[in-house]
Amino acid sequence: MVKEDLVLDRLYPVLTPQASELISSYDEHALVNSFKFGVIYQGPGQTTEEEMFCNRQTTPAFDHFLSQLGQRIQLKDHKGYRGGLDTQFGQTGVESVYEVFRDKEIMFHVSTLLPYTEHDSQQLQRKRHIGNDIVAIIFQEQNTPFAPDMIASHFLHAYIVVQPLEPGNPYTKYQVSVAARCDVPFFAPTLPCPAVLDAGAAFKEFLLTKLINADLACLKAKKFSMLETRTRKLLLSSLVEDLRLKSNEVFQMPSEAEAAKAEPSGTRFFDTVRKVLSATKKPETAAPPSGPNSGSTSGSGPGAAQGSGGCLPSGANGNKKLPVNGTCQSDGTPVSTRSGAGLSTSGGGSSGGRTPSSSPSSTPHTTPHTRKAFSESGDDSSFNSIDMDGHQAVLNEDSDTGLESMSSAETGHQRALESRAAVLDCPMCGGVQDGLVCVLHASPEVVARRVQALSEDVKKLKGDKLDLLRQNVSLQRDVKRLKEKDLRQASELSSTNREIARLQSLLKEFTTTNQVSAV
C-alpha cells in the first residue's frame, strides 16, 4: 500500500527471494545491542579536566563501585564487544570493565584503567575514548562541585554523578544525580526522592538501565538526529539499489548503469535481433507501377497462376495484396531477375521494365505507404506472395517486438524456397546489406555464432572481474599487515620513550650525587 501523499516517479517490482532478508537488515540498523560508557574518577578538590584525567591511583571505594558496574576482564583474551579498545597489542591498557545486561553488551572506558602518558597534561590517549562517548559516569570520592562544561567534548551529552555516602562500609549507599544538555529528552527510570540507593543488584539494574536509556535519548538530540537522518537516507538508497540489482539478476536483466555503458546488444537472442535490425541498412523502395502491366491486385484474371506463397488479401476489406518476390510462368516455372533495388519479372520469354527506386523501405514493420512495388509483364504470370493474414497490425503500425514479423517472414520465405528450389534474396531488404545478413532470413548458425561470441566476451569480463577482486583482497591483506606493524612499532616506541625517561632520571640523580660528593 502506497501513502496517498507520497509522490513517486515510478514503482519497481521487488522479485528477488532475498528481499525480506535485505529489508530486515535495513530495519535492524536501528537496533543497538552494544554500548560504551565513560567512567571518570574525580578526586577531592579536582575541578578541571586535566586533573581528573591525570588520576593514576584508585581507591577501594572506586574499585567497589566498578565491581557494581560489571566484571573486570583482560583485554588480551576478550572476544565480545570491545568498544574501540585494543584487544591484540595492549595499546589501550590491560584491563577494563565489561558487562552483559539484558542481552546487551556494555564496555566501560575507565579513566584509571586506560594508559597514562608521561608529559601529557591533557592525557589525550584517555580522552580519545571517553571524549567520544555519549554518556559518562563521574565518580566523586567526596562532595566536590562538578559542571558538565568541565570536560570539552562534542559527543558527551549526559552525565550521571555518583557519590558514595559511606565509602568504608560494605553496605554503602550511593547518591545519584543526572545532568544532560537541554535538547536531550527525558529518559527513565526516574530518580527516587531522595536520590539515595543501596549498593547491590537493584542499584546495578537501576544504573545500567539509566545509562542505556540516556544513550538512546541523547541520539534524539539535534546533532545526533541529523546524523541519524542522513545515515538512514544512505541506507535506504543502498537498500533500493540492492533490491533493484537482485531483481534484475533474477531475470538476467542489466542494470541502468550497465545498460548505459554497454553496447545495445546482449547475450540473449532478442537483443541480438534488435541490434542487427538497427544496424541493417534500409534499401530504397520502388515507385508503384502504372499501366496495364502493373501487379495484380485481386488475384484473378486470365492465366493468373497462384504461387506457393499465395497472394491473399492483407486486410479484411480486400485492400491490396503484398507482392513479395518471384514470378511464375504459365507452366509453373519461377523466373526472377534482380537489378539494384528493383525487381523485374518476365513471363513467356518477355521481360518487363525496371521499377525505379524512390524511397527507403523497411523490414516487415514497413507501413503501407513505404512498401516495395514490383512490376510484371504478360497476362499469364503472377507474383508469389507471403501470406500476410493475421498480421495487419504489423503492416499498419510500427511494432517493437520483432517476433511476430520474424516468424511470418521466415514462414513465407521457406514456402518460396520450397516452391522455387533455390535461395532467394530477402524481398524487403535485398538479403545482404554492407556485410550484415538480414536477421529475418539469416540462418540459425549465424545468429548462434554471434550469441556465442558475445557470451565469450561476457565470460572474459567476468574473469577480469575475479582478477580485480583477488588483487583487492591481496591489497587489503597488505594494508592490514602494515597497520599491525604500525601498532607494534608504536608500542615499541612508547616502551623506548619510557625507558629513555627512566634513564634520564637515573642520570640526573647520578649527576646530583656526584656534585654533592665533590662538595
UniProtKB/TrEMBL annotation:
GO molecular function terms listed in the Swiss-Prot or TrEMBL record: GTPase activator activity
A Pfam family recorded for this sequence: Rap_GAP
Biased composition annotated in UniProt, kind: Polar residues: 326-335
Alphabetically ordered keywords of this record: Coiled coil, GTPase activation
Composition-biased stretches (Low complexity): 353-367
Keyword Coiled coil set for record: yes
Sections of the chain in a coiled coil: 451-513
Signal peptide: none
SUPFAM superfamilies (UniProt xref): Rap/Ran-GAP
Composition-biased stretches (Gly residues): 298-312
Region (Disordered): 281-387
One GO BP annotation of this record: regulation of small GTPase mediated signal transduction
Keyword Coiled coil: yes
GO CC annotations, alphabetized: cytoplasm
PANTHER family in UniProt: RAP GTPASE ACTIVATING PROTEIN 1, ISOFORM H (PTHR15711:SF32), RAP GTPASE-ACTIVATING PROTEIN (PTHR15711)
Protein name in the entry: Rap1 GTPase-activating protein 1
Organism: Hyalella azteca (Amphipod)
